[in-house]
C-alpha cells in the first residue's frame, strides 16, 4: 500500500515537473523567436460589433462612437467579449501580448470574441503597430482608438478606470463587465474568468 | 522506505509554493485602495529624494498650495509631459505653489530617477516611494497622475495634467485650470479627469 502510494506520488511529481518544463520551454520559445514580418489574416466574428472582416492585416482606426458601438453589442451578438487596451510603447502590454495571442487561439473557437484596442499614436497605424502584431503572430482583430480627449472614451468603458495601461475587460453575453484587470494580466486568473463565460467548465 | 518519497514530496511542495507565488504576484484593480475623496486632508508623509535625503510633504509645500505628480523614468506618456511639468513648476513657483514629483515604480531605482531628472531638466523635487506606500495611500494608479493640495493640505484636484499627450493637441489644461481656480479662491470646477498612462509598477 505504502509502496503504491509513494510510486503514485513519484509519478505525479514527474508529471508535474514535465508539465512545468514544457510550459517554461514554450514560453521561452515565444519570447525569443522573432517571426519574419509576413501578413497575417486576423480572425473576426460578425458580432464583434464593428465590421472587421475585410481588413486582413490592417489595423483599423476607430473613434469614440465606434468604441461605444462596440461596447453596446447592439443585441445581435451572444458571445462573451474580451477587450485589451494596449500600446506598443507600454512595456507590460508587450510582455503580456504572447499570453493574449495564445488565449485568443485557445478560446476563439470556444465562443470568445477578443478585440485588442491600441492606444498608439495614429501615425504608427501602418508601421509600429502592425510590425509588433506580426512579430506576435497576432490573429485577433486589432483596432486603434484615435480620440482627442481620452476622458469620454475611458469612462465609456468603465467608471473606475483612469486610463492606466494595459487594461483588460471581459464582458458577458449581455455586455456586462464580469472581470477586469489593470496592469499585466495573470493568464490563469483570466482563463478562469473566461471559462465561466464560455461554459467550458460548467 | 520513507526516504523514497521524501524527495518527490519536497519537489511537490516546492512546486505548490512556486505556483502560489506566481498566482499571487501582481495586483488587481479591486486590491488597490481607493483614492481619498476631494476635500480630504492629506496626512503628512516623509519620503527620500533620489539622493536619499528625507523630505516631509510639509517641508516641501508651497505657501499657496502644492502639486504632487506621480511620474516615471521609462513611461513614454510621463516623459511626454516632462517639459510641461517643469514649465508648470516654474510658472506656479512665482504664485506660491510648489510641485513635488513622486516615483513609485519598483522597477525604477533612485539612481535612475536622479539620472533621468538631470537628463530631462526636471528641477522640482522628486521623491522615491519605495514599496509604493504613498501611491497606495493616495490611490495613484498611473503615470503621470496629479494631485493638488490647498494651503490646509486639503485635496482639491486629482486627475490628469491635461487632455492630450501631444502638447499641440491640448484643448483642456485641467491641472492648470484647477490651480488657477484654487489661487483665485474658487472651488475647483472639474476634477478626476482620466487619460491614458502607464500603470504604476507596484511591489507584489
Task: Describe the 3D structure.
Chain A is an alpha/beta fold. Chain A has two domains: 1-33; 39-198, Glutaredoxin (3-Layer(aba) Sandwich). Chain A contains six helices and seven strands. In chain A, strands 1-4-3-2-6-7 form a six-stranded mixed beta sheet. Mean pLDDT of chain A is 77; it is low at 18-55. The longest helix of chain B is centred in the N-terminal third of the chain and has 23 residues, at 2-24. Chain B has 204 residues and is α/β, with parallel strands linked by helices. In chain B, a hairpin with a 5-residue loop joins strand 1 (46-48) and strand 2. Chain B has helices at 2-24, 57-60, 76-80, 82-93, 110-120, 133-138, 174-183; strands at 46-48, 54-56, 65-70, 97-103, 125-128, 142-143, 145-149, 155-159, 197-199. Chain B has a single domain, classed as 3-Layer(aba) Sandwich (Glutaredoxin). Chain B starts with a helix and ends in a 5-residue tail after the last strand. A five-stranded mixed beta sheet of chain B has the order 5-4-3-7-8. A two-stranded antiparallel sheet of chain B has the order 1-2. A two-stranded antiparallel sheet of chain B has the order 6-9. Chain B contains seven helices and nine strands. Classes of the chains: A alpha/beta (202), B alpha/beta (204). The interface between A and B is large, with 40 and 38 residues.
Low-pLDDT windows of residues of chain B: 14-29
Helix content of chain B: 25-40%
Round the mean pLDDT of chain B to the nearest integer and report it: 89
The name of the CATH architecture of chain B is 3-Layer(aba) Sandwich
Q: What are the low-pLDDT stretches of chain A, counting only 5+ consecutive residues below 50?
A: 18-55
How would you characterize the largest beta sheet of chain A? 6 strands, mixed
Secondary-structure content class of chain B = alpha/beta
Q: Specify the CATH class of chain B.
A: Alpha Beta
CATH A-level architecture of the largest domain in chain A: 3-Layer(aba) Sandwich
Amino acid at each position: 500500500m505504502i509502496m503504491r502510494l509513494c510510486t503514485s506520488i513519484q509519478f505525479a511529481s514527474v508529471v508535474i515537473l514535465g508539465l512545468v518544463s514544457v510550459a517554461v520551454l514554450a514560453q521561452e520559445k515565444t519570447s525569443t523567436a522573432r517571426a519574419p514580418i509576413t501578413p497575417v489574416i486576423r480572425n473576426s466574428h460578425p458580432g464583434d460589433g464593428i465590421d472587421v472582416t475585410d481588413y486582413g492585416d490592417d489595423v483599423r482606426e476607430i473613434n469614440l462612437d465606434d468604441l461605444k458601438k462596440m461596447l453596446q453589442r447592439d443585441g445581435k451578438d451572444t458571445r462573451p467579449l474580451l477587450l485589451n487596451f494596449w500600446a506598443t510603447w507600454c512595456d507590460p502590454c508587450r510582455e503580456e501580448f504572447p499570453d493574449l495571442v495564445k488565449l485568443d487561439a485557445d478560446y476563439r473557437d470556444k465562443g470568445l470574441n477578443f478585440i485588442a484596442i491600441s492606444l498608439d499614436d495614429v501615425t504608427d497605424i501602418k508601421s509600429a503597430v502592425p510590425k509588433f502584431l506580426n512579430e506576435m503572430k497576432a490573429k485577433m482583430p486589432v483596432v486603434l482608438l484615435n480620440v482627442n480627449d481620452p476622458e469620454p472614451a475611458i469612462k465609456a468603458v468603465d467608471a473606475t478606470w483612469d486610463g492606466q495601461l494595459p487594461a483588460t475587460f471581459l464582458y458577458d453575453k449581455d455586455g456586462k463587465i464580469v472581470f477586469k484587470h489593470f496592469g499585466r494580466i495573470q493568464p490563469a486568473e483570466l482563463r478562469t474568468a473566461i471559462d465561466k463565460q464560455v461554459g467550458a467548465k460548467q | 522506505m520513507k526516504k523514497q518519497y521524501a524527495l518527490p514530496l519536497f519537489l511537490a511542495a516546492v512546486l505548490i509554493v512556486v505556483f502560489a507565488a506566481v498566482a499571487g504576484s501582481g495586483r488587481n484593480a479591486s486590491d488597490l485602495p481607493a483614492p481619498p475623496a476631494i476635500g480630504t486632508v492629506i496626512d503628512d508623509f516623509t519620503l527620500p529624494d533620489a539622493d536619499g535625503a528625507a523630505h516631509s510633504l510639509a517641508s516641501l509645500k508651497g505657501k499657496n498650495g502644492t502639486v504632487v505628480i506621480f511620474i516615471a523614468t521609462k513611461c513614454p506618456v510621463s516623459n511626454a509631459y516632462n517639459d510641461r511639468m517643469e514649465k508648470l513648476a516654474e510658472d506656479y513657483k512665482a504664485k506660491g505653489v510648489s510641485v513635488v514629483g513622486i516615483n513609485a515604480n519598483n522597477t525604477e531605482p533612485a539612481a535612475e530617477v536622479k539620472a533621468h531628472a538631470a537628463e530631462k531638466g526636471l528641477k522640482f523635487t522628486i521623491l522615491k516611494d519605495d514599496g509604493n506606500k504613498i501611491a497606495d495611500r493616495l490611490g495613484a494608479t498611473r503615470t503621470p497622475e496629479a494631485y493638488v493640495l490647498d494651503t490646509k493640505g486639503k485635496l482639491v484636484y486629482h486627475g490628469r495634467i491635461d487632455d492630450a499627450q501631444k502638447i499641440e493637441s491640448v484643448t483642456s489644461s485641467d491641472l492648470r485650470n484647477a490651480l488657477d481656480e484654487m489661487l483665485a479662491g474658487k472651488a475647483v470646477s472639474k476634477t478626476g479627469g482620466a487619460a491614458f498612462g502607464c500603470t504604476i509598477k507596484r511591489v507584489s
